[in-house]
Write a structure and sequence with these properties.
The chain is of the alpha/beta class. The chain contains 6 helices and 5 strands; from the N terminus they run βαβαβαβαβαα. Bound molecules: adenosine-5'-diphosphate (ADP).
Length: 151
């Protein structure tokens, strides 16, 4: 069984994340979207809110579950028996950052990281810019799934 973990902050989930998740669905039997808890980070949305945005968006998708975790991502993969980590790549900065993490994870475990290249129409979307739009009263309709707008 091919089980992938898609880890991230999802503060909030965006249409960029949704694009990666939807395109990964045919590749895996199960995808666990996992919100990493990092006590050093200041989040705009609470863990409960971020969890709800994602669960509401995927409530009709049986192959997807949503969890939270702290500690090493590879340890959480072992705990839930996930054999792949899924990540999205937008640009060279993402590549350099992700390469070091994926290679570190390969040194520490047998878990393979699978990368999907961002789609042309969502490649510019980032949670940080979306937070700025929302904070300043802008319209985030084109950047986030409906679950973020209505909650
Ligand atoms: P993290 O704090 O771990 O980077 P994010 O929630 O920002 O968490 O991102 C989770 C994953 O989603 C990362 O692999 C990131 O590259 C990917 N991602 C974010 N936005 C996009 C996008 N617009 N297109 C493709 N991948 C994306």
């Amino acid at each position: 069984m091919r089980k992938a973990l898609f880890p991230g902050s999802f503060d909030p989930i965006t249409l960029g994340h949704v694009d990666i998740i939807n395109r990964a669905l045919p590749l895996f039997d199960e995808i666990v979207i996992a919100i990493g808890i990092n006590s050093d980070k200041n989040y705009m949305f609470s863990l409960e809110e971020r969890l709800k945005f994602i669960t509401d968006n995927y409530k009709n998708e049986p192959k997807i579950t949503v969890k939270t975790y702290s500690g090493l991502t590879i340890d959480f993969c072992s705990k839930i028996d996930a054999n792949f980590i899924l990540r999205g790549l937008r640009n060279p900065a993402d590549f350099e950052f992700e390469k070091a993490i994926a290679q570190t994870n390969r040194k520490l475990s047998k878990i393979e990281t699978v990368f999907l290249l961002t789609s042309a129409d969502t490649s510019f979307i980032s949670s940080s810019i979306v937070r700025d739009v929302i904070k300043n009263g802008g319209d985030a309709t084109g950047f986030v799934p409906k679950s973020v707008l209505i909650n």
